[in-house]
Amino acid sequence: MSNSNHNSASRAQYLSIFLGCLILLVFTTGAIFAEGGGIVNSPHDFSNLGQSANSRNTTGELCVACHVPHDFGQDIYQSGLLWNHAPSEATYTTYVSSAGLSAQQPSGTSKLCLGCHDGTIAIDDYDGASGGGSAFIGDYNSAFQVPGRLTQHNNSGRTHPVGIEYIYDPFDADGLHSPSSPLGFSGSINDVLDNGKVVCSSCHDVHNNGAQRGSQLLRAPMKASQGSASGLCLSCHKK
Fold this sequence. Notes:
Helix content is 21%, strand content 0%. It has helices spanning 3-28, 108-117, 137-140, 200-203, 231-236.
């Protein structure tokens, strides 16, 4: 065999080994744990009438509990995204950092999430049935109520500071990563902020386009068994 052919064969062998190692690295770092299956069969699939929260969904539609294609004069669309669910009117005790920086009242998409998850509005209070719902998230599954199993559901200061500005200081060794840094399966940190602020969907992929398997629709791993212990936290926080 000529040296040229031998070198080509060696390069092909090394390339094959490299690709094999790369695939193994992808598997062991948790990338295979991305669900990415979309909203069907996810926790936000409201087409299953067997669940009490979906009992009013007689159409069996997938998206109707949150969105509506035709508003018919209800003006719920003013909450954004052709919204179809009664929004929360609660006032929250917000987070205050150790430096005295206060989070604002939840707004934007976070306000839409809280329409179900703060426990003050019934999950099935949608499609024009204002006040007609009966399935509250705290009764349905208390783990899904913000802030979890705590009793003060209007105290958002007991959860991650939704509404707080993402402030990056390149000279702060204990601060936050650059907003251009990657975040799990969802592009960069910038891609999941709302006008520079942290919102519910900064951490949770509500449509399950690339959420972490076995989590509450989180955008990155949180367990060592998923490939990266506290990976979601460390995507934004340096330490």
